[in-house]
Amino acid sequence: MRSSTWRNLSVLALAATTVAGAQSIQVYSELTRVDPFGEVVVADRGENSPREILSPALPRNASTSLHLVVSAPPGTLFNLYVGLNPDHAVDVAVYREKYVKIGEQWVPDGLEPVMLPYQGTIATEGIPGQTAQSFLLDLHVNRDSEVQRIKIEPEVSFPDRWARYPMEARIVETAAPGNLAKPSVLLPSVAQPADYAARRVLKQKLCAKAEKGIADPSPTLRAFIARDAVQDMAMASVVPEDTLWQLIGAADRAKWCREESPVPDGTEWYLRLRDRIVGAKR
After folding, report:
1. Cα separations in angstroms, 59 against 244, 276, 279
2. 3-state secondary structure of 26
3. How far are the Cα atoms of 16, 66, 73, 75, 197 from residue 121, in angstroms, in the given order?
């Protein structure tokens, strides 16, 4: 084979690999928001890389939210599915995330409920050069659900291939009490780090902050994060407060209660605390 022919074939193979690699589905924790170009938003970044979601712990009588991010070239048609084994092991709700422009960056916040399977096209938001669409996957486990391992597999069909993200989730013994109150905190702005919504709920428990928020009828990512933090605090009744403070890592507790500032680790520092509450291990 002539060297020029070999070079041409190599370029074509590389191009095909690049196109295939651009078509994917990824899963992130609810505390890592992803922009319409497949990048973690600046406010949620830290020194550590986002956690790889492979075996999430699902407490009973509670909901757990994850981000699904479908990536492909602009104009690509796709179909989104979520497979379960056993069937109906958890209740599944999916929301398409809507983006808000903050300065020069687009940040997901609004939520539009969708039915599965969902058919969509990359770059339907009117965002120039959009290459990713994020969804919120909300999983609810009933109180009487069996403690077991289940398979949850978000998958996407593109015109020429499939992409899958298999997870082995764990329904755990820990359960949230019934009749949980709705979050009563003032939600942070879209521009602030995602963990601020959870942090404000945590401060109500540890800092005796009586903060009242304004009810918003439209669902947002910030509201879901606060909802899940309320569940966490309800389940945390058996965890000593000193243990919670140790997981927070605040050298000055009074200052932590007074102020809000980004954590160098990034927004997912809060997952250490959630792991302890639901009895999961990283």
Report:
1. 18, 12, 9
2. strand
3. 21, 21, 10, 6, 31
pLDDT, one tens digit per residue, over 33-74 is: 999 999 999 999 999 899 999 999 999 999 999 999 999 999
Span between the terminal Cα atoms of the chain, in Å? 51
Interaxial angle between packed helices 221-235 and 270-278, expressed in degrees from 0 to 180 and rounded to the nearest 10 = 40
d(CA 83, CA 89): 11
> 69: helix, coil or strand?
strand
Structure tokens at 32: 């890592």
Angle at 180 between CA 266 and CA 168, to 5 degrees: 55
Distance (Å, rounded) from C-alpha 268 to C-alpha 75?
A: 32
Give the whole-angstrom CA distance, residue 29 versus residue 21. Answer: 22
Burial of 265 (0-12, 13-18, 19+ CB in 10 A): middle
| Contact present, 19 and 30 (Cβ < 8 Å) | no
For residue 143, the one-letter residue type is R
Q: Please write the tens of the pLDDT for every residue from 248-263.
A: 988 899 999 988 888 8
